Amino acid sequence: MKTILHKANTRGHANHGWLNSYHTFSFAGYYEPTRIHFGALRVLNDDTVAGGMGFGKHPHDNMEIVSIPLSGDLEHQDSTGRHEIIKEGDVQIMNAGSGISHSEKNASHHQEVKFLQIWVLPKEKNITPRYEQKSFPLAERKNKLQLVVAPDDAHAVWINQNAWFTLGSFEKDITSNYQLHNASSGVYAFVIKGNITLNGVALEERDGLGIKDITEIDIKADSDTEVLLMEIPMQLN
């Protein structure tokens, strides 16, 4: 087993007033040559957007962009004509493919929206841009793992990569286990809330841990905790 630990307080940080953003990997004005990516995982941003504010229309291509709201409502519009509201419990993916423009803003003028934005390098380039959004009942991840992103499961949102994302919400002292879909993959874990131990490594809120050369991950909740596990290819195309 090989691991790389990214403590929460080592992340890049940019506070623009309307946007308070923490970057696990190099992004925008934050550059750290040892933290460019973990396999195909390129961006993991932990964003808080003030009421009524947001990102203006901007382009993307050849990137798989996943948004996971943690609280509040996120409004999405894009060049395909999509206009959606994404809420806690929803997971959205935008397969940018050959090119798409979109905007994201806080759907509320009174409440902050907190969300994770995650970029994964694609398996195939220049596909037709695609958007998908699904709701995942929070009760179905209580004390177990809930698959939300996959290339091969109709219940999850589809990703143009051999990648699987699962969310879990565990009560203190609950144990669980994650079996990798592909032995050559790595897993990047991000602790949304609380404290958790993964394969003997203790993690705190907003810590990140990359693990490779494994076939499974043992999970122990050291407090009431929420965690995101991202299984991704370690070899880039």
Topology (SSEs and partners):
Elements: E1 2-6, E2 12-15, E3 19-23, E4 41-49, E5 54-60, E6 64-71, E7 74-78, E8 83-86, E9 90-95, E10 100-106, E11 113-120, E12 130-135, E13 145-150, E14 157-158, E15 164-170, E16 175-179, E17 185-193, E18 196-198, E19 201-203, E20 208-212, E21 216-221, E22 225-233
Parallel strand pairs: 13-14
Antiparallel strand pairs: 1-20, 2-3, 3-4, 4-11, 5-10, 6-9, 6-11, 7-8, 7-10, 9-12, 13-15, 15-22, 16-21, 17-20, 17-22, 18-19, 18-21
Structure, explained:
The protein is mostly beta strands and 237 residues long. The chain has no helices and 22 strands. The chain has a seven-stranded mixed β-sheet, with no helix packed on it. A seven-stranded antiparallel β-sheet has the order 2-3-4-11-6-9-12, with no helix packed on it. A four-stranded antiparallel β-sheet has the order 5-10-7-8, with no helix packed on it. The protein is globular, with a radius of gyration of 17 Å. The two termini are 23 Å apart.
